[in-house]
Protein: GNAT family N-acetyltransferase
Organism: Wujia chipingensis
Amino acid sequence: MSYTIRKITSDEYEVLDDFLYEAIFIPEGVEAPPKEIINAPELQVYVEKFGSRECDICFVAEMEPQAEERGKKLFRNIIGAVWVRIMDDYGHIEDGVPSFAISLYEEYRGLGIGTALMKQMLAELMDRGYRKTSLAVQKANYAVKMYLNVGFQIIDENEEEYIMVCEL
């Protein structure tokens, strides 16, 4: 599978709504919530007016187009995204620390693309002089292992979630 990782362009920000929905962890046997759930204020902090703050950073994973698709711009070649912003979200640990969000369309999970996106973002944050970053993840989410593998550590937890930090 051939893909590239690149910075998102401003005309693509709307795709973050799709990836915000994809980032919602749905345990096995539980029905997915309606897509409108992303309009809840506690979720909108991740995407509302994205790109308007200097700390808004996003990379996307994009499939290489098939031979017959070359020459056309296909918005749906984007298969995953990782983005950060400084916000008061579930993973907020302190002012000035960017919080992570990441997701891939289901059929592209478990292939190493998420890890590549995470590493790209961690390198970008280091280049920009950030000293740490954080995220929240449900304990049952298979992505916990990936976060640990790229350098995040569990610093707190509640009944359902881990709060994780990566020192850069």
User: Anything to note?
Assistant: The chain has one domain: 3-167.
